[in-house]
Amino acid sequence: MSEEVIRTEGLTKVFSKHLTAVDHVNFNVKQGEIFGFLGPNGAGKTTTINMLITILKPTEGKASVLGVDIAKQDNNVRNVIGVVPQEYTADEDLTGLENVLLCSDLYGIPRKIAKERAIELLKLVELTDFKDKKVETYSGGMRRRLELACGLINRPKVLFLDEPTLGLDVQTRVASWDYIRKLKKEFGMTLFMTTHYLEEADALCDRVAIIDHGKIVVVGTPEELKHSLGGDIITLSIKEDPDVSELIRAVEHVKEVKNEDGSYRIKAEYGEVTAPFIIEALRRKGYTVTKLMLTEPTLNEVYLEYTGKSMRDTEESREAFRAQRMTMRRARA
Amino acid sequence: MSRLNEHRPSRFHGIWALTKRELKKWLKEPIILLMAILQPVLWMGLFGKAMNIGNMFSSSNINIPSIIPIPGQAIIPPQSGSITISGAALSQMFGDLGPNIMQNIFGVTDYFSYMAVGMISFIVMFTTMFSGMSIVWDRRLGFLNKVLSTPVSRGAIIFSKVLNASLRAMFQATIILILAVIFGLQVSSTFNVVNILGIYAAIFLLCIGLSSVFLALALRSTKMETQMAIVNLINLPLMFASNTFFPISQMPDWIQAIARVNPISYLTETIRQLTILPMQASVLMIDFTYLCIFAAAFSVIGMALSWRYLTK
Known about the structure:
The complex is a heterodimer of chains A (333) and B (312). Chain A is of the alpha/beta class and 333 residues long. Chain A has two domains: 4-221, 3-Layer(aba) Sandwich (Rossmann fold), CATH 3.40.50; 230-296, Alpha-Beta Plaits. Chain A has twelve helices and 14 strands. Chain A has helices at residues 45-52, 74-80, 96-106, 111-124, 140-151, 170-187, 198-204, 222-228, 245-249, 271-284, 299-307, 318-332, and strands at 4-16, 19-30, 34-38, 60-65, 68-69, 81-84, 158-162, 190-195, 207-212, 215-220, 232-238, 254-260, 263-268, 289-295. In chain A, the strands form three sheets. In chain A, strands 6-7-8-3-9-10 form a six-stranded mixed beta sheet, sandwiched between helices. A four-stranded antiparallel beta sheet of chain A has the order 2-1-4-5, covered by helices on one side. A four-stranded antiparallel beta sheet of chain A has the order 12-13-11-14. In chain A, helix 3 runs parallel beside helix 5. The relative contact order of chain A is 0.14. Chain B is built from 13 helices and two strands; from the N terminus they run H-H-H-E-E-H-H-H-H-H-H-H-H-H-H. In chain B, helix 5 (111-131) packs parallel to helix 9 (193-220), helix 8 packs antiparallel against helix 13 and helix 12 packs across helix 13 (281-310). Chain B has a two-stranded antiparallel sheet with strand order 1-2. Chain B is 71% helix and 3% strand. By secondary structure, chain B is mainly alpha-helical. The A-B interface holds A 50, 53-57, 75, 78-81, 83, 85-89, 91, 93-94, 98, 102-103, 105-110, 113, 150, 154-157, 160, 186-188, 318-319, 322-323, 326 and B 1-5, 7-10, 13-14, 16-18, 20-21, 24-25, 28-29, 140-143, 145-152, 222, 311-312.
C-alpha cells in the first residue's frame, strides 16, 4: 500500500521574473490515498496540478506519476490519469452520453467498448435517466458528476480533481464526497485534489499538503496537523472553590492550565482521551466537575497558522479568476 | 477496473473526434449557419443586382435624338452645308459598345455573375476568420485544458480546428454558389463537374492558410473582443483591395499592389476561371501556385505559433 504514485523533486514553474508560481516543491502521494492540496488563491495549487497532468511543462525539477516522468513521457502519463477540471468542460449543446463518448474518443477507446463504459459510468454517477438530455438542462451537481464520469472513461489509476465542489451547495457537496469515497474504496484509486474548503479536506483527505507562495509549508494527515498546533482546549468548572490547577497539570498530556475566574482553560493533547483522566483525578480528590467543554482545533486553525491571516490580493491571472467565477455561476444555474 | 488504458488514439482518431464535435455543435445551431449565409446573400441580392453596371452602358442611358444635325465643317474633309445622321443607328452603335466594355473590364457581360463569385470568397474568408475563435471559448471554459490532459496529440487539436474551418467554408461556399446560379449566375461553356473539385481545392488551400493564422491569434488573445476587432478591421480592406467587387486593372497603383498579393484575389480569380470565364490553364496554374505557397507558408507559421502556445 505504500507504493508511491506521485513523486515530485524540486518541482518548479517560473512564469516570469516576478512570478514563480511553484517553487521547488517536494511531496509524494501513496497508492490508494486521497491527497489534498490546500492553499490560498494564487498559492500554486492549480499550477502544480497542471504540471502533474502535463498541461504545463516544469521549469525545473522532476515529477513522476506511477513512475512515469511527466516531462519526458508526457503521453504515457496522459493515458493513465483521469482529470476532473475545475471548470465545467462538458459541451452544453451535446447530451451527457455524447459528452462521455467524446472523451472516450480522445483516449482512442473503440466505440463499442466506449459505449459500454459510458453507460456504466453514467450509472455510477446516477445520470442514467438524463443521459440523452442536453447538458444545458443539467444542474450544477449533475454537471460535476458528468465531469467525473468523463474523467473516469479511461479507467485511470490516478484521478486529479481540481476544486471538485467549487460553487456547489452543501447537500450536493456532501453527495460529491460520497462519490469520491466510493471511487477510492471500490476501485482502489489514488486521488489528488485541490480545494479551499477546509472542512472538505478534513472530511475526505487521508493526507493534506498546505502550499503557500509556491512552497509546501506542511504535509500530514489532518489529525497530525491539528495536533501539531499543540492539542485541544478543554474548558471545565468545578463546584468547589480551591484552585486545582496543579492537580490538573499533573495529568498526562496536559500542557497548559489557566484558571480564569474558576473556569479552567486547559490545553491538552488528545483531548477526548485526556478529559476523562482529568475528571477522574479531580473526583479522586473529592472535587465535582460541573461543566466540561472540549474544543478540537479544526483545519481552519491549522491553515491560518501556516498561511497567516493576511488576505491575499489574488496573484492569479485575470483569466483564472474569471474562470473560477464562471464555474461558480454555472454551478448555481 | 484497474487495468491501464490499453487504447491509444491514432492521430486520425483524435482529429476526427474533435472535428466531429465542432461539426455537431455547428449543425445543432442552424440559425448561425443561416445568418452566416444570409450576409453574402444580401450582398448578392442587393449590391449585385442594384449595381447594374451592364445597364449603365446601355444606349437607353444616352439621350440620343432621332435626328442629329452635324455642321458640315466638323466633318473631315469639311463639307458645305450640314448633314444629319440617324439617331437610331448611333444608338445601336453605343448599344453594342456597352457589352464590349463589360467584356473587356470584367471578362463577362453581366456584373452579377462577376460579383456573385466574389461572394464565395467573401463567405470563405469570413467563415475561416471567425471559426478559429471558438478556441477562445474552449480555453475559457476549460475544455482546451481537458483535451490537453488526454493523449490526443497537440497537432490534432490544432488541425481539427483548421479542418473544421475549411469544411464549414466549403459547405457554405457550396450553398452560395447554388444560390448564385438560381439568382442568375451564368456559367461559361467550359464549366463542368471537375471544375467543382478545383473550386473546393482552391477554397481548402486558402482556408488552411488563413485559419491557421487566425487560430494562433485566437489562442493568444485573451479576449474574444480583441479577435472580433481584428477580424472586423481587416476584412473590409482585404475584400475591397482585391478583385471581389472590381477588377484589379482599374484600380490605382497602390491598391493594385495590395490586391496583387492579397490571397483573396487569387481565390476569386480561380473560382471565376472555373465558373464564369472561359478557362485558361496558364492563369489557373499561376493562381494555384500562389494559393499553394500561401497555404504552406501561413499554415506553417500559424501552426508553429499554436504549437508553441500549447506546449508551454
